[in-house]
Amino acid sequence: MSETRVPVKLNKVDKAAILLLSLGETDAAQVLRHMGPKEVQKVGTAMAQMRNVQREQVEKVMSEFVELVGDQTSLGVGADGYIRKMLTAALGEEKAGGLIDRILLGGSTSGLDSLKWMEPRAVADVIRYEHPQIQAIVVAYLDPDQAGEVLSHFDHKVRLDIILRVSSLNTVQPAALKELNLILEKQFSGSANTTRASLGGVKRAADIMNYLDSSVEGPLMDSIREIDQDLSTQIEDLMFVFDNLADVDDRGIQALMREVSSDVLVLALKGADEAVQDKFFKNMSKRAAELLRDDLEAKGPVRVSDVENAQKEILTIARRMAEAGEIVLGGKGGEEMI
Question: Cα 231 from chain centroid?
Answer without folding.
Answer: 25
